[in-house]
Structures are given as C-alpha cells and as structure tokens.
Amino acid sequence: MDATRRARVEALILEELTVLIRRGIKDPRVDGASVTRVELTEDARQATVYVSALGFDALPADDDTLARCVEGLSSAAGFLRRKLGPSLQIRHIPELLFRADRGLSNTLRVEELLRQLEAEKAGRKSDPEGA
Q: How is residue 56 annotated by DSSP?
C-alpha cells in the first residue's frame, strides 16, 4: 500500500474509531477516551491506535486511568474491528493494537516546570542580596 493510500486509511480509521468508541462501547473504563493518531503497517495488517484519556477536570488522566482505558479498548478490539469492516474499503481489516499516548500530559508537565522556573527567577530578582 502506498503512503498516500495508507494515510487516507489511517485517517478513516481514526474518524470511525472516534465515533465507535463514543457511541458503541459501554465499558466504563473507556469513558473520556479519545483517539489521537493511528499508524498502519506497510501491509495494512496491523493498526496501532494511540489513545488519550481525559479526567473529570478536562485534564489528562493519570497513568492508572489511562492504563485501564487502554485495557478496556484492547478487550473491545474484536468488536471495533468488526464494526470498522463496512466503512473501510480494503481487503483485510487491520488488527487493532491500542497504546497510551502521553503527549498531552507530558506537554502540560513541561509547561508547569517552566512556570516554576520563571517563578523562581522572579523571586531571585526581587531579592537582590541573595539572602
């Protein structure tokens, strides 16, 4: 499968899984799950689906919640694969592997560390004697 076709299939899988996860899965472990990206292998036999989960405060969920979310999606992989079949126009529906995407939580952590560093710098500037 060429790169352009693979990119289109990845986008379609992402779109379809987003809808299926929201509407079709009743497992409480996957509440707040969102598909961030999909990577399809060269032969289109396997799709790695990266997911993120939001907590109740609209911030990224902790590692435990994210792990439970990935576990819930992995247990529903067969169901999701069957539901993907009619919308994908390819010979073989790829096997779905779910992985945690910690990109957003890592970004927020770096921003928090930068804010702390700025606060420390501001505190040193206001105390010129260094006491």
A: T
Residue 7 CA to residue 13 CA, distance in Å, equals 10
Q: Quote the pLDDT of residue 105.
A: 64
Q: Minimal CA–CA distance to 76: which of 10, 21, 38, 9?
A: 21
Domain edges within the chain: 3-101
The tens digit of pLDDT for each residue in 90-105 reads: 888 999 999 988 776 6
Res. 56: pLDDT tops 50: no
CB contact at 8 A, 95 and 45: yes
The mean per-residue pLDDT over the stretch 51-57 comes to 68
Q: Which CATH architecture does the domain made up of 3-101 adopt?
A: 2-Layer Sandwich (3.30)
Q: Are 57 and 105 contacting, i.e. CB atoms less than 8 angstroms apart?
A: no
Backbone angles phi, psi at 40, to 5 degrees: -100, 140
Strand, helix or coil for residue 40: strand
The identity of residue 45, as a single letter, is: R
- Residue 118 identity (one-letter amino acid): E
